[in-house]
Amino acid sequence: MSDPRNVLVTGGNRGIGLAIAKSFVEGGDNVVVTSRSGEAPDGLTAVAGDVTSTESVDAAFTKAEEIFGGPVQVLVANAGITKDGLLMRMSDDDFADVIDTNLAGAFRCVRRASTGMIRARGGRIILISSVVGLYGGPGQANYAASKAGLVGLARSVTRELGGRGITANVVAPGFIETDMTAALPEDTQKTYKAGIPAGRFARADEVAAVVRFLASDDAAYVTGAVIPVDGGLGMGH
């Protein structure tokens, strides 16, 4: 059993982020989640953080470091939004807002986390992308572009900081069992599942397990990688 690590999960108050945060807690790590409201479900420690603001990101990390009594050792950049729409009708704001949150927001968090990791000569950065970032999706030009951008970010960070014991990897989930997918009409769910070789949606804890692996000592030589957790949906992409 390795020593507990200081883990920060952005957008860790619901969905995949919540499953990831709970998984680290169950593994004995010290976990802080960020949410825009600064609130989180029972059993989790939260700080307020808006990834579209450098000042807010800095304040969230500073508060988390006070709670931990040390630097963030594992960053899971999960916060994200969607503003889907057909290309010809997508406004500049809808494109820019998604890029600002999903891609630039991850950049702001990685930049802030890297200072402590460089001093410690070690750290784990895990960016939560999507199969859509590699596979594309109609009506999701903004979302797909933002999620694809995370791959370039992780690989650039790997080349820049890899010699300092810092890894940066991307997890690309497919369809996940969430309130959102549960609300889809049954016929729509069947259509989606028909295109997934595994024939089902993923459980959020299956994504969390891959994140936990990438944060572990066992993954010290895995960096700049894109790990799909999509039941085979995006094979070859």
Strand content: 15-25%
CATH topology: Rossmann fold
CATH class: Alpha Beta
Low-confidence stretches: none
N→C terminal distance: 36 Å
Class derived from helix and strand content:
alpha/beta
Largest sheet: 7 strands, parallel
Q: Any idea what the shape is?
A: globular
H/E topology pattern: EHEEHEHEHHEHHHE
Total of domains: 1
Radius of gyration: 17 Å
Instruction: Based on the coordinates given, report the CATH architecture.
Output: 3-Layer(aba) Sandwich
As laid out across the biggest beta sheet, the strand order is 3-2-1-4-5-6-7
**By CATH's scheme, which homologous superfamily applies?**
NAD(P)-binding Rossmann-like Domain
Count of DSSP H/I helices: 8
> What's the count of strands?
7
Helix content estimate? 40-55%
On the 0 to 100 scale, the average pLDDT is 95
